Amino acid sequence: MKSAKGIDNLAFVPSSPDILRRLSALPSEIEISAFSSDPQKENSQTQELQKPQEPQKSPEPSLPSAPPNVSEEQLRSLSLSEFEEGPCGWRNFHPQCLQRFNTPRGFLLHYCLLAVTQGIVVNGLVNISISTIEKRYEMKSSLTGLISSSYDISFCLLSLFVSFFGERGHKPRWLAFAAFMIGLGALVFSLPQFFSGKYKVGSLFKDTCVTASNSTSCTSSTSSLSNYLYVFILGQLLLGAGGTPLYTLGTAFLDDSVPTHKSSLYIGTGYAMSILGPAIGYVLGGQLLTMYIDAATDVTEDDPRWLGAWWIGFLLSWIFAWSLIIPFSCFPKHLPGNLMKNAVFMCLVLSTSSEALITTGFATFLPKFIENQFGLTSSFAATLGGAVLIPGAALGQILGGFLVSKFKMTCKNTMKFALFTSGVAFTLSFVFIYANCENEPFAGVSESYNGTGELGSLIAPCNANCNCLRSYYYPVCGDGVQYFSPCFAGCSNTVSHRKPKVYYNCSCIERKTEITSTAETLGFEAKAGKCETHCANLPIFLCIFFIIIIFTFMASTPITVSILRCVNHRQRSLALGIQFMFLRLLGTIPGPIIFGFTIDSTCILWDINDCGIKGACWIYDNIKMAHMLVAISVTCKVITMFFNGFAILLYRPPPPATDVSFHNE
């Protein structure tokens, strides 16, 4: 396909007997001596090839003359063995209806569909399921952070292998393999739901204060549920194996398939669609979390024991991913120094690695942060997190690619643009300090029991005879103070038919009058659920964080384009492979783990079962959590800006006669 400004990928040129015409795009490395034995003719041809070429004014590029000593059959053999171009299909089966997709736009469509599917699972469903998985399988945030990082571990281990061998292989069929692995990973990730048995909300007992009751015994010192950690890790490893060809070979194939001036627009579109996937994942997963994990139950969504149907989305993604295997397998093949010593390239790689650490950390734990900071339910926090993360990231990707393409930025100006956007995001990162919320009063944790008891202990004289269970967390709010459960609030009576459930005659809550009968009054002292937060910073936080996400992702496409422009065109897939290896090794693998350990360090109330084993965290120190996260963000942003600025200082533009797209710095 030809245009006025460049030549599209030969893989999408319809088959034609006019082999000489298509040889106009053969690699320049083919020696002239192979076509001529006349030294003078060779010198003249070499000098002619070394002349700077004028911009083409005609849509038809100049064509070389036929070599005198090579037959047309040899030319046909050389061309087809080099590119293996041809129609869309399999072997001798080439349906005419498929040929309309045998274009760069057709490939981009299927690339976007696979990127959306991958984003739904890896950056959408996995992230919003973290809190549910922690509670269902009794895991800490540090362990679920390891689950999140397992995808990037797989990506890191396979990126060089896939990019090296995939560059010489059939890239679209590598993407068919990617679709298979993404579907398989989604299926494996959902398997614990079917083998862990039905979710047990706990033994039946009264939630109010009753003496000589509610006693349980430790029946097992360990729980087998935490062993499903390895199944989740396996699912993520398979997903990583599928994501590796998608973002190394797929991106390089897009760059090879279109003219240089269109490359950033196509790559930006592909990356933007990879952001659409998490948007769908957050919305879909948020709705699925409003459905109970198993069959119908009497437990309501405001009950902390409620767990949503996190697993359904993974099964749907498995089916959709495998439906893309056949389309990718029908695309034709296309084939298009040491990179580690390329200082500009390595600086750009390190800047993206630092940025990836915080983006993956927030992508994993932002819903958890919103849930705890602003006292929201898991499903609503996941919806808000997706509403901020996904549109902001998609808009940033699109704007970055559009502005680079619109103003035809040079490689150096592209890096300057990325540095500017990172600087804006760095300045706004301090929003976590001013837009956080203090913890609401919690009896026994941050507030005493009306002046009795000790901080750090849920037991006080007012509930000492209630035999309350620490393993039963069902918060109630009374007189503006939150209590661990109605039992710890000393409540002896309840009205079960009211929603939310209400309690009265609570010995730990200061009351004005004695309530003797619910028929005489509608008064109550406590109601089920957390106390309503008095913090009004949520809209401010969401707005500013949305802007941060936009400017953060505006640098993504420009950096990728800069990497592709500062390496030899035959090393692009390998360059992207090295980039993603370092990005995973230094960014997305440690990111969720660091965030998980950091969030765990701010816990002030752990879930401890009857056997004394620590599980998930119930209450966090909001102020400490916000300060710790802003420290991580600012540190990583400084590292990003340093390496980006250093790359600008080191970069030297190519000579005017050199094609910038093939420039090797």
Automatic annotation (TrEMBL):
<dbReference type="InterPro" id="IPR036058">
    <property type="entry name" value="Kazal_dom_sf"/>
</dbReference>
<feature type="transmembrane region" description="Helical">
    <location>
        <begin position="628"/>
        <end position="651"/>
    </location>
</feature>
<dbReference type="GO" id="GO:0055085">
    <property type="term" value="P:transmembrane transport"/>
</dbReference>
<feature type="transmembrane region" description="Helical">
    <location>
        <begin position="343"/>
        <end position="366"/>
    </location>
</feature>
<dbReference type="Pfam" id="PF07648">
    <property type="entry name" value="Kazal_2"/>
</dbReference>
<feature type="transmembrane region" description="Helical">
    <location>
        <begin position="174"/>
        <end position="195"/>
    </location>
</feature>
<feature type="transmembrane region" description="Helical">
    <location>
        <begin position="538"/>
        <end position="564"/>
    </location>
</feature>
<feature type="transmembrane region" description="Helical">
    <location>
        <begin position="309"/>
        <end position="331"/>
    </location>
</feature>
<feature type="compositionally biased region" description="Polar residues">
    <location>
        <begin position="34"/>
        <end position="46"/>
    </location>
</feature>
<keyword id="KW-0472">Membrane</keyword>
<feature type="region of interest" description="Disordered">
    <location>
        <begin position="34"/>
        <end position="71"/>
    </location>
</feature>
<keyword id="KW-0812">Transmembrane</keyword>
<feature type="compositionally biased region" description="Low complexity">
    <location>
        <begin position="47"/>
        <end position="60"/>
    </location>
</feature>
<feature type="transmembrane region" description="Helical">
    <location>
        <begin position="229"/>
        <end position="253"/>
    </location>
</feature>
<feature type="transmembrane region" description="Helical">
    <location>
        <begin position="265"/>
        <end position="289"/>
    </location>
</feature>
<dbReference type="InterPro" id="IPR002350">
    <property type="entry name" value="Kazal_dom"/>
</dbReference>
<dbReference type="GO" id="GO:0005886">
    <property type="term" value="C:plasma membrane"/>
</dbReference>
<dbReference type="Pfam" id="PF03137">
    <property type="entry name" value="OATP"/>
</dbReference>
<feature type="transmembrane region" description="Helical">
    <location>
        <begin position="108"/>
        <end position="130"/>
    </location>
</feature>
<keyword id="KW-1015">Disulfide bond</keyword>
<feature type="domain" description="Kazal-like">
    <location>
        <begin position="456"/>
        <end position="510"/>
    </location>
</feature>
<protein>
    <recommendedName>
        <fullName>Kazal-like domain-containing protein</fullName>
    </recommendedName>
</protein>
<feature type="transmembrane region" description="Helical">
    <location>
        <begin position="378"/>
        <end position="405"/>
    </location>
</feature>
<comment type="similarity">
    <text>Belongs to the organo anion transporter (TC 2.A.60) family.</text>
</comment>
<keyword id="KW-1003">Cell membrane</keyword>
<dbReference type="InterPro" id="IPR036259">
    <property type="entry name" value="MFS_trans_sf"/>
</dbReference>
<feature type="transmembrane region" description="Helical">
    <location>
        <begin position="576"/>
        <end position="599"/>
    </location>
</feature>
<feature type="transmembrane region" description="Helical">
    <location>
        <begin position="142"/>
        <end position="162"/>
    </location>
</feature>
<keyword id="KW-1133">Transmembrane helix</keyword>
<dbReference type="InterPro" id="IPR004156">
    <property type="entry name" value="OATP"/>
</dbReference>
